[in-house]
């Protein structure tokens, strides 16, 4: 990978990347590389011509006549709550989403966080219990565990996949561990093979946080269908979206029935109040938006995968830029985000922030994504000082938790290396759009000796 490459010259790395490398080396010419020659010259941040100018990206969220018609139909029906009809918009969406996932059950909720919390409660996880998950995720992941008054134990990352490291997860398993909640960050698969092995070995539950990972495939199976349950988000930025919204996929009849009861303020399908639970029902309008998107969701999914593969095939040969590492068997991603690692050694030791600034001037905006891992956020001190946690966990365990709440790889990813292109809309672009991204990164690399002036 790029992190092992030497600091090549422009001619050397382009020659090495070319299918005609031998011929190019003999002739001392620079092979074509996404037509970069037209973009050669001064950095736009220093007064040069930007690679991409006056162009937009495909708009998101997706709206078409099917979406509008579905919302209008629901409005006119006057069935605006799922409990009004067993064949209303929400139950219909649940049936179609389960079919798309090849699962027995799908339960729609008001958000991905609600889906995760419902799953945690349905598994009987609560005070005194621990769930191992990632520090590199939306706060909703740990909120779902904290809401059950369980303890979120954060494992460090594989530095180049950005997923939780299975080895560090296994090191953190103890007698109070009840579940692992792997996060399929960026919409690509975590190392599910290892986590399922751990589940069998230590008798643990697996809750897949697939909130970013609609239709992603790992070893021939859709993410969300591998663990005990899989939880999804339909928030506005996601690749299938309705503003807010979420859901749970599962095949265990008893567990999914309990999920329904919990999400319905403890009232079961049998009409009895059986368990404590919040009110997490998806509303009919959210489901209407989603139903309107489903017929063409796979078409957009395939487009993102096509563009992601193209970007990776080119970007991987630029020294200092490494596309997200994918585990064996990761054949499709949702590509909610397209991400890469930045190695400043290949850019004259210039900081990531200056690289991002230079790239933005070229018309391509990347972001560091998550500023701090969740292990660095104030919630840790808050819960460790709460009386309820001090009653549920021994002083020794809470001190150990504080001492071991270290994730150095996550710190490096957040502080120095992560580069993210939000992809739900942009990866629906043309090949020319993708070439603009490639050309902009290449141009900044070519001018790396001038980045300190940006």
Overview of the structural elements:
There is one protein chain. The chain has 454 residues and is of the alpha/beta class. It has two domains: 2-59 and 297-370 and 413-453, Aspartate Aminotransferase, domain 1; 65-293, Type I PLP-dependent aspartate aminotransferase-like (Major domain) (Aspartate Aminotransferase, domain 2, 3-Layer(aba) Sandwich), CATH 3.40.640.10. Helix content is 39%, strand content 12%. The chain contains 16 helices and 13 strands. The protein has helices at residues 10-17, 21-27, 65-77, 89-101, 112-122, 140-146, 166-171, 192-202, 253-263, 284-315, 352-361, 379-384, 387-392, 395-404, 408-417, 431-446, and strands spanning 105-109, 130-133, 151-154, 177-181, 205-209, 217-218, 221-222, 229-233, 246-250, 321-323, 330-332, 337-342, 418-422. The strands form three sheets. The protein has a seven-stranded mixed β-sheet with strand order 1-9-8-5-4-2-3, with helices on both faces. Strands 7-6-11 form a three-stranded antiparallel β-sheet, with no helix packed on it. A three-stranded antiparallel β-sheet has the order 10-12-13. Helix 6 links the parallel strand 2 and strand 3 (151-154). Helix 3 packs antiparallel against helix 10 and helix 10 (284-315) crosses helix 16 (431-446). The longest helix has 32 residues, at 284-315. The model is unreliable at 1-39 (pLDDT under 50).
Strands, helices and their partners?
Layout lengths: L9 H8 L3 H7 L37 H13 L11 H13 L3 E5 L2 H11 L7 E4 L6 H7 L4 E4 L11 H6 L5 E5 L10 H11 L2 E5 L7 E2 L2 E2 L6 E5 L12 E5 L2 H11 L20 H32 L5 E3 L6 E3 L4 E6 L9 H10 L17 H6 L2 H6 L2 H10 L3 H10 E5 L8 H16 L8
Parallel strand pairs: 2-3, 2-4, 4-5, 5-8
Antiparallel strand pairs: 1-9, 6-7, 6-11, 8-9, 10-12, 12-13
């Amino acid at each position: 990978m790029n992190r092992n490459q030497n600091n090549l010259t422009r001619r050397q790395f382009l020659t090495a990347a070319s299918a005609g490398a031998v011929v190019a080396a003999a002739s001392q010419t620079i092979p074509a590389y996404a037509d970069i020659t037209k973009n050669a010259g001064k950095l736009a941040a220093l007064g040069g011509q930007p690679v991409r100018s006056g162009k937009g990206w495909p708009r998101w969220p997706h709206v078409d006549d099917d979406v509008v018609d579905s919302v209008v139909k629901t409005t006119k029906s006057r069935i605006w709550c799922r409990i009004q009809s067993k064949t209303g918009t929400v139950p219909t969406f649940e049936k179609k989403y389960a079919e798309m996932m090849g699962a027995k059950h799908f339960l729609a909720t008001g958000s991905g966080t609600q889906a995760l919390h419902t799953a945690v409660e349905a598994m009987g996880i609560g005070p005194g219990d621990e769930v191992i998950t990632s520090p590199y995720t939306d706060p909703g992941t740990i909120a779902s565990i904290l809401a059950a008054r369980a303890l979120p134990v954060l494992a460090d990352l594989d530095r180049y996949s950005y997923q939780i490291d299975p080895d560090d997860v296994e090191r953190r398993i103890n007698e109070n561990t009840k579940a692992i909640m792997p996060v399929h960050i960026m919409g690509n698969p975590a190392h599910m093979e290892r986590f399922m092995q751990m589940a069998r070995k230590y008798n643990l539950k697996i809750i897949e946080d697939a909130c970013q990972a609609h239709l992603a495939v790992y070893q021939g199976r859709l993410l969300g269908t591998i663990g005990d349950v899989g939880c999804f988000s339909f928030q506005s930025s996601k690749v299938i979206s309705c503003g807010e919204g979420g859901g749970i996929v599962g095949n265990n009849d008893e567990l999914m029935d309990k999920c329904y009861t919990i999400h319905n303020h403890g009232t079961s399908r049998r009409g009895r109040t059986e368990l404590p639970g919040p009110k997490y029902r998806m509303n009919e309008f959210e489901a209407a938006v989603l139903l309107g998107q489903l017929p063409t969701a796979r078409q957009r999914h395939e487009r993102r995968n096509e563009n992601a593969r193209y970007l990776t095939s080119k970007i991987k040969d630029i020294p200092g830029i490494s596309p997200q590492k994918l585990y064996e068997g990761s054949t499709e991603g949702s590509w909610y985000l397209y991400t890469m690692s930045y190695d400043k050694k290949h850019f004259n030791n210039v900081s990531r922030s200056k690289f991002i600034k230079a790239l933005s001037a070229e018309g391509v905006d990347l972001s560091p994504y998550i500023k701090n891992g969740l292990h660095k956020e104030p919630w840790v001190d808050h819960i460790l000082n709460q009386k309820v946690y001090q009653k549920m966990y021994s002083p020794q365990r809470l001190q150990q938790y504080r001492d071991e709440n270290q994730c150095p790889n996550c710190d490096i990813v957040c502080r120095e290396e992560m580069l993210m292109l939000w992809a739900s809309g942009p990866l629906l672009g043309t090949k020319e759009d993708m070439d603009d991204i490639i050309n902009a990164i290449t141009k900044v690399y070519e001018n790396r000796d001038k980045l300190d002036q940006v």
